[in-house]
Amino acid sequence: MGTVFSIDVRDPDVGEPAIDGVVQWLHWVDSTFSTYQPGSEISRLARGDITVRECDPQVRKILDLCDDLDRATSGYFSAYATGVLDPSGVVKGWAIEQASELLRAAGSANHCVNGGGDVQCAGEFEPGRPWRIGVAHPLEPAQLAGVVAGNDLAVATSGTAARGQHIVDPYTRRRPTALAAVTVVGQHLTYVDAYATAAFAMGDRAQSWLEGLPGYWALGITADGAAWRTSGFADTAITPSATSLR
Amino acid sequence: MKRIVLAFFGTSLGLVALLSFKSHGHPVGAGAALPSAALPGTNASPSTPRASQSTSAPPNPSSTPASRRTIVGDAIETQYGVVQIKATVSGNKIDQVSYVQLTAYDGRSQQINSYAAPILLQETLSTQSANIDTVSGATYTSEGYIQSLQSALDKAGIK
């Protein structure tokens, strides 16, 4: 399964080289962290061919991050959810957030990076107009469950809408079924994405857990189509609304 | 400036492609050039694209720059259905992507097809609702889409 990244830079004076840098970064991340490539550092590490100390420092950083997230989510985010080392659940969000930082360092204050439906945006879409991110409805093709608007937002959705999504409840080792999708909004995609993954694994317990997380807002759609939102979702720069595309 | 990158997190295909899109391109897959561009379950009538519409004209060799070509990718059969992609290319950039074929062998696959083409979903949603810049959703990927698109890129000589 591949992932498509789109990079939308709104600053007129930021050119191709900045985007080229992001593209190189994404390819580097892929080749280092891919669990599907036997020669990647993460695969060699999982097999015990090399130690963490022999890996790129970023690998160590990701493993530390996995430990932090494991604790922060009471174990619902686990790099060992499937029984073998697989930090993919945090790598994508982190790579996208870092891509945004690379663009910022290259002089871009206004951009949006979307990797397979996980979004980090900075600044605004155009002067005076914030970024508007549609949340795909997991059960109604081509419809939105809501719209999130704001500056410097991170939005991630975990769910079953697409084949190939293999979130596993680390406690039961089974695929969670209570939620069709959960969307988490915050500022930093690394955490937003990992929390969305953990919340999806939590199922019925996700709403109350997310309610207790300051700085994060969430929208859940249960398997039978009911929607819930954490309080404060509408009180921030975020303006969710039911939007139909038809 | 907007660029779509196909990279392959966790893929065994070993396939990496780099695609460029114009910032306000034609709604991908929703183009009126081919009836088969319509996805099941979606309203594919070409709705109001915002801003510039520089790539909206259907491919017409007599009126487009000489370097602009339309390349049809291989039809890829997966266990879920058949996917075939058509790309319109100017130089090293892809202006337009649409479906030549998109079939589903079962209802679930038909439902998933609505999500399976990430570029389509993203660009179509962006354009149709006029106020959406991008879309968050559960990872929507399609091996068939990627393989067919890659074959089109290979034919176009795009690295």
Task: Explain this structure.
The complex is a heterodimer of chains A (246) and B (159). Chain A is 32% helix and 22% strand. Chain A has 246 residues and is α+β, with helices and mostly antiparallel strands. A 7-stranded antiparallel sheet of chain A has the order 1-2-3-6-7-8-9. In chain A, strands 4-5 form a two-stranded antiparallel sheet. The longest helix of chain A has 18 residues, at 16-33. Chain B contains 3 helices and 7 strands. The relative contact order of chain B is 0.23. In chain B, strands 3, 4, 5 and 6 form a 4-stranded antiparallel sheet that branches. Chain B has a two-stranded antiparallel sheet with strand order 1-2. Chain B is flat and about 40 Å long. Chain B is an alpha+beta fold and 159 residues long. Chains A and B meet through strand 1, helix 1, helix 4, strand 2 and strand 3 of A and strand 1, helix 1, helix 2 and strand 7 of B. Strand 1 (3-9) of chain A pairs antiparallel with strand 1 of chain B.
How are the SSEs placed, and which strands pair?
The complex is a heterodimer of chains A (246) and B (159).
Chain A: E1 3-9, H1 16-33, H2 41-47, H3 57-72, H4 88-105, E2 111-115, E3 118-122, E4 131-136, E5 144-150, E6 154-159, E7 179-186, H5 189-202, H6 206-211, E8 217-222, E9 227-229
Antiparallel strand pairs in A: 1-2, 2-3, 3-6, 4-5, 6-7, 7-8, 8-9
Chain B: E1 2-7, E2 17-21, E3 68-72, E4 76-77, E5 82-90, E6 93-102, H1 107-116, H2 118-129, E7 134-136, H3 143-156
